[in-house]
User: Which sequence fits this backbone?
């Protein structure tokens, strides 16, 4: 779902279902990706129903994480590296072949009460049957879309994590979410900085100006090297579940259950030990690391934004 150039599927009868990335000399076997996310449906007609299914399966199968930064590894924008991270190492985000355009967005920071100054988050605009949709499989935690969002200003669109909407502000679009009240089971985390009690908040802003991968190169470098970056200070791994999401933020492991009928989300939070780290990553997130993880767990007063919605 994440990607830049327009693309399509090869013939489904082909012995090697592959995706060619122009100008890169890379052929990516989409069957590996489909297997990775558990997709067994029809893919020869890229329609809305298929996109919805793939979008949901992706966020349920591939964690949103920044663990490479805390394993002494470098994150790149190279598509072959990304595909290898997704499929072979059970990590990352991929690209599907729809009529899509890559966009950039500026994430809202609660501590600053404003959007960041530069595009640091990649999203896609997808056009299907004349309608425009926003796809985003890589925001994670409690702000994650499970399905594409129709690009209609002011339209409330209900999903499992709450009510999402996009607002046309003229010079930009704002993506926002209205969540639910939270119930924290462990009293020790009742006032945790990870939990936000603000019900409605902007998530990011964006324009419809097409962006290429190179547009994000500097931001990619900054996010993993700037000492004031959230990603250098907090190690994050999260994945959506049929009932909510799971997250490991620093040393804090959380299982969150959505309960829309009661208008509440239930947070089961605890700190883990070093001995539990590898087991939790493997069993709860299907993540296996090549290098040793040094969890980041620093609090940023000025730039920190609440990770859980």
Assistant:
């Amino acid at each position: 779902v994440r990607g830049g150039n327009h693309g399509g599927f090869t013939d489904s009868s082909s012995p090697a279902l592959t995706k060619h990335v122009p100008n890169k000399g890379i052929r990516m076997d989409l069957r590996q990706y489909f297997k990775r996310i558990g997709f067994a449906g029809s893919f020869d007609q890229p329609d809305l129903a298929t996109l919805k299914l793939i979008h949901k399966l992706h966020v349920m199968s591939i964690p949103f994480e920044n663990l490479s930064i805390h394993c002494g590894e470098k994150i790149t924008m190279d598509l072959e590296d990304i595909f290898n991270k997704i499929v072979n190492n059970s990590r990352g985000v991929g690209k599907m072949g729809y009529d899509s355009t890559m966009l950039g967005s500026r994430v809202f920071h609660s501590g600053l009460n404003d959007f960041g100054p530069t595009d640091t988050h990649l999203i896609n605009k997808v056009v299907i049957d004349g309608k425009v949709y926003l796809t985003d499989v890589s925001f994670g935690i409690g702000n994650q879309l499970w399905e594409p969002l129709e690009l209609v200003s002011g339209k409330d669109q209900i999903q499992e994590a709450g009510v999402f909407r996009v607002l046309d502000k003229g010079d930009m679009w704002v993506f926002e979410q209205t969540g639910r009240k939270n119930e924290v089971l462990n009293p020790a985390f009742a006032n945790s900085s990870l939990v936000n009690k603000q019900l409605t908040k902007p998530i990011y802003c964006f324009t419809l100006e097409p962006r290429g991968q190179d547009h994000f190169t500097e931001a990619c470098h900054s996010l993993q090297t700037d000492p004031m970056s959230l990603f250098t200070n907090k190690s994050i791994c999260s994945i959506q579940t049929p009932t909510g999401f799971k997250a490991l933020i620093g040393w804090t492991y959380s299982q969150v259950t959505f309960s829309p009928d009661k208008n509440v989300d239930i947070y089961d939070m605890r700190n883990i030990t070093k001995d539990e780290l590898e087991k939790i990553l493997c069993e709860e997130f299907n993540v296996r690391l090549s290098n040793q993880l040094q969890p980041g767990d620093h609090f940023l007063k000025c730039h920190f934004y609440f990770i859980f919605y």
In short: The chain has six helices and 17 strands. The CA atoms of residues 7 and 42 lie 17 Å apart. The chain has one domain: 18-285.
